[in-house]
């Protein structure tokens, strides 16, 4: 079972400390949301977990330092959906999703039947199969976001790290995106996602990491983490809470 561990991870960009001594042990089968206000260090922490930015401390993937692992091994183990990715080449949607299979291909090899099945499966799950023949650069922002999620799913990696996967999506497709990530975790994968929607975090995630000023200020079950005191301290807001096992949250007022 895959395990991704951050041990006192710190990241400095320029002269600014963006992530400060964050430790967390993330396990297969968890849907972990990374929350926090703008500039809290969420995306930088996500990138540090993949070894994409220089960091202090250690990130361990199944007991091995990620900094020592071959990039292809990491790419087969962790599928990464970056934030706000720009498309420059006029590829068809199907060919773009097929790029998710690159970590599994040897040099100069061709896509196999198993690869094609994985591509078709990812497009079906993300509900973009009807877009297969469209040119990806001509898609709307929401359509592009769903196609890029399909590309990440096509890797069929045991870990999915998604940075702002709900950006540009309408409410129905935001729910679809959360349902997909929830299903991936229920299938035994580790899913780590950066986003801002407190209500969806409460409803779908098993666990939340909340960053503020680069520091981890809360880590735990959504109902234990998203309290009125935390929302006031970290976000400077008050909110209305629903009832039930996973109560909804509606931000109501700025406090500062």
Automatic annotation (TrEMBL):
The keyword ATP-binding applies. GO terms for molecular function: ATP binding; ATP hydrolysis activity. Coiled coil: none annotated. The keyword Translocase applies. Keywords: ATP-binding, Nucleotide-binding, Translocase, Transport. InterPro entries: AAA+_ATPase, ABC_transporter-like_ATP-bd, ABC_transporter-like_CS, P-loop_NTPase. Residues 4-238 form the ABC transporter domain. Gene3D superfamilies: P-loop containing nucleotide triphosphate hydrolases. Part of the ABC transporter complex HmuTUV involved in hemin import. Responsible for energy coupling to the transport system. Belongs to the ABC transporter superfamily. This is Iron complex transport system ATP-binding protein.
């Amino acid at each position: 079972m895959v395990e991704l561990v951050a041990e006192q991870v710190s990241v400095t960009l320029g002269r600014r400390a963006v992530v400060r001594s964050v430790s967390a042990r993330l396990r297969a089968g968890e849907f972990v949301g990374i929350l926090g206000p703008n500039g809290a260090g969420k995306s930088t922490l996500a990138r540090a977990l993949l070894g994409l930015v220089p960091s202090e401390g250690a990130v361990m993937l199944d007991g091995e330092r990620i900094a020592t692992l071959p990039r292809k091994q990491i790419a087969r183990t962790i599928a990464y959906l970056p934030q706000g990715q720009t498309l420059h080449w006029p590829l068809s949607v199907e060919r773009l999703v097929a790029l998710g299979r690159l970590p599994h291909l040897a040099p100069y090899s061709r896509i196999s039947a198993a690869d094609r099945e994985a591509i078709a499966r990812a497009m079906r799950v993300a509900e973009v199969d009807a877009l297969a023949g469209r040119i990806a650069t001509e898609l709307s922002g929401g359509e592009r976001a769903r196609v890029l999620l399909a590309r990440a799913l096509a890797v069929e990696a045991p870990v999915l790290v998604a940075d702002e996967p709900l950006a540009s999506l309408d409410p129905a497709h935001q729910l679809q995106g959360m349902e997909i990530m929830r299903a991936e975790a229920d299938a035994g994968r580790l899913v780590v996602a950066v986003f801002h929607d407190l209500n969806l975090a409460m409803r779908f995630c098993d666990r939340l990491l909340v960053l503020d000023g680069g520091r981890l200020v809360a880590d735990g079950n959504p109902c234990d983490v998203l309290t009125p005191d935390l929302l006031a301290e970290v976000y400077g807001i008050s909110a209305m809470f629903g009832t039930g096992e996973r109560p909804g949250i509606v931000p109501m007022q700025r406090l500062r």
